[in-house]
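Predict the assembly for these two chains.
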Amino acid sequence: MSVGLEFPSSLVPIKGVRLASTSANIYSNKRNDLLLIELDKGTVTSAVFTRNIFCAAPVKIAKENVNNFKPRYLLINSGNANAGTGEKGIIHAKSTCQSLATITGCKMSQILPFSTGVIGEDLPVEKINQSLPELVNKLSNDAWLEAAQAIMTTDTIPKAISRQVILNGVDINLTGIAKGAGMIKPNMATMLSFIATDANISKEALDIAIANAVNKSFNRITIDGDTSTNDACAIFATGKAKNNLIDNCNSDDFIEFERAVINICCDLAQAIVRDGEGATKFISIEVSKGKDQDECLGVAYKIAESPLVKTAFTASDPNWGRILAAIGNSGINDLNINNVSVYLDDVCIVDNGERSKTYTEESGKKVMVQEEIKLSVNLNRGACKEEIWTTDLSHEYITINAEYRT
Amino acid sequence: MSVGLEFPSSLVPIKGVRLASTSANIYSNKRNDLLLIELDKGTVTSAVFTRNIFCAAPVKIAKENVNNFKPRYLLINSGNANAGTGEKGIIHAKSTCQSLATITGCKMSQILPFSTGVIGEDLPVEKINQSLPELVNKLSNDAWLEAAQAIMTTDTIPKAISRQVILNGVDINLTGIAKGAGMIKPNMATMLSFIATDANISKEALDIAIANAVNKSFNRITIDGDTSTNDACAIFATGKAKNNLIDNCNSDDFIEFERAVINICCDLAQAIVRDGEGATKFISIEVSKGKDQDECLGVAYKIAESPLVKTAFTASDPNWGRILAAIGNSGINDLNINNVSVYLDDVCIVDNGERSKTYTEESGKKVMVQEEIKLSVNLNRGACKEEIWTTDLSHEYITINAEYRT
C-alpha cells in the first residue's frame, strides 16, 4: 500500500554513470538484491550517513572512503544490513570490496559499500562475490529502474525520479533513487538514496549542496521514529554536462543547482513516507511562528510520532485532543497555550488553545477522510517555521513488523 | 486483555475515608463513571500532577486547592477529560465543585476535581450535578472496588491494592486504586491514582513520600510514550491509626512508611502496564552501569518506545538488531558500543556490541514467547542503574485507538 505514489517513469540516464543489478540469493525468495553503480573517472562524490552510534560496517567504510579517495564504484545489497556484526562485519564488507577491486582493476578504497536489511546477521560474502563478474558485465547506462528495485526491502514500490535544471544554457540532469519503508527517522540521510548528476561541480560545493538538501528533505521525515543503523545518501556528479565548474556557493549556478538537488531529495523523501510501512495517509505537519527551529521541529515530531495521533489519522477521526496533548508534551515549558491554534487543511480546529467556535466535527471529519492531509500548528511566539512529513499507524504496520523476520 | 493481572480482592477499608460511585450517564453505554471520595476532617493530602502544558481544567483547580486548603472531597469522573476546553472548562469544573460544596457544607476550595476520558468535549455539568445527592447518600467505607471500576476508561480490569506496614507496633493500612490503559507515559503521575492511608503523618512528610514514590513507580512506565493532559496521583492520610506523628523524613518510621507507599505505587503502576492498551507482554527494561540516571532512562525509554522493538515483542521475535538500533539512537554520543551487552532474562544476546558467541536463535525465542520478559542492557561505563516497565505494540492497540471515539 502506498499513498499517491506512481510507478517511476521517464528516468533520464546520466552520462558517466552505469548500473547493473542481479539476484545474489540474499533473500530466500529470489529477487534482485545486489546493485553495482560505476562512476566514470573524474566523478565527484559526496555522501551523508546515519548518526546512529551502532552504525553498520559498510557505513564505517564508506564514510572513510568517500572523503579520502575518489569513488569509482558503489556496491549495494539489500536483505542484509551488516550491522551489529562487529569486526567481522568490517572484514566481510572489505572482502566484497576487494573482490570487486580485483575484477575492475580499481583500488579497494575507491569502492563505497552499502547494505540494508536485517540487522545482526553475517553478510553472505560468497554469494555477493560470485555475483560480481555478472554485474560488471551487465553495466549499462539506463538501468535506473532496476537499480531502484534491487535496493527495496519492505518498500512496495520503487522510488526513482529525474529532474532537469538549466545553468547558463546548459542542460543539467539529475536522476535519483531511494528506499525506505521502516525504521525511518533519518538523522542525517534516509535508509539509502543515490543521486547522479552530470553537473560539473567541485567536491566542496557538492558537499554543501547535498548537506543542505538532506537537511530539508530526508531529515524532515519520520515513519516510526526509529533511526536506522544504515542510513546513507550519496550524490555523484560526473561533470559530463560540461557546464562551467560550480565552485562558488554564492553563485547563481550553485543556488540553482542546489535548488534542483533539494527538489529531488524532497520528492524522494516524500516518496519514502508515501510508501511507509502500512501507510494509508500522507501527512504534512507545519509548525509556524515558533521561536526557533528546534522548538518547531520538537512540536512537529512529537505530533508525528504520537501513536495516538497516528491511529486517529488511520481512523480518519478528528480527535484533536490527542494533537493538543502531543503539543503539550513537546517540552516548551513557557508555551502560552492560549495563543496556540491548529488547522486541518483550512479548517481551524483549535483557536486560543481550545476548540474553535467555528469548528464542527463534520468539517474536521471531511479533511480526515482524505489520503493527504496538512496539519498546521501556529505557536504564535516567534518567526520560525518548519515542515515535516509522516504517515499514520495502521494494522498493516504491525503485521509487517511482527512478521518481517519470522 | 491484560498480562498476569488478577481481579482485585481483599481490599482493606481505610478509617476516615468513605467512597461512593454511580452512573452520571457520561458514557453512552450506561456504567459507573462518577466517583466521590470523602475525607474526614484532619486528613492530610498530597498530590502530584501531569507536566503536560495542556493540562486539564480539573488539574489546574486541584493543583491549587491541594496545597492551599485542606481537601475534604475528591470528585472524579471518567468518560470526559475536561481538557482543551479553555476557560469554559474551568467554569464547568468549578460548577460541579460548587454544587458539591452546597450539598455537603464544605468550602468549594476543599474539593479536588479530577477527570479522565475524551479530550476537548464539554464536561456534562448537569449530569454530574444531578448525581451528587445520590453519591453523598451512598458514601461508605468499603466501596473501594466500585471506586476502581468507576474511574476506568479503556482499562479491561480494575486496579486496586491494599498494603499494611507496622510502625512501632501500630498497624498502618494503605489502599490505592488506579486507572491507565492508554496515553501512558506519566511525567509526574499516572492518569489517575488515589491512595488512602490511616497513617498519622505531616503534610510535609507526606509530600516527600508521594513525590519519591511516584518517581520510582508511575514515572517509570510507558505504554505509548504519550503523556496525558490529566495525570494525577493523590494520597490522603487520615491519621486514624493513631501512630506517633511521622514528621521527620530521616526517621525509621518515615522510611518504613515511604517504602510501603513506593510498593503500592509500583504495584499500581505495573498494573497499569499489565493492562496497557493491547498489551500481550509485560516487559521490564533494566539499564545498568550508565554514567547517570538520565542516560539510563534515555536508553530504557528509547527501547521501550520503539515501535519496531515493541512489534518484535508482539511477534515473540528475538530481533535484537532493533534493540541495538534503539540503543544507538538514544543520544549518548560517546558510547563505546564495544562495551555494550544485552540480555533477555538470563540469555546473553549481545556481548561486546555484537551477537554473543553463545547465543542461539532458539534460546532467544524461548524467552521471547513468555508473557513476562526482562530485558537488561549493560552500558559498562558507570555506576547508575534504572528500571522501567512497558508493553508490546499489538493489533489490539491500533484497534482500540482507531475506534475509541468513533
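The first strand of chain B starts at residue 17 and ends at 22. The mean pLDDT of chain B is 88.
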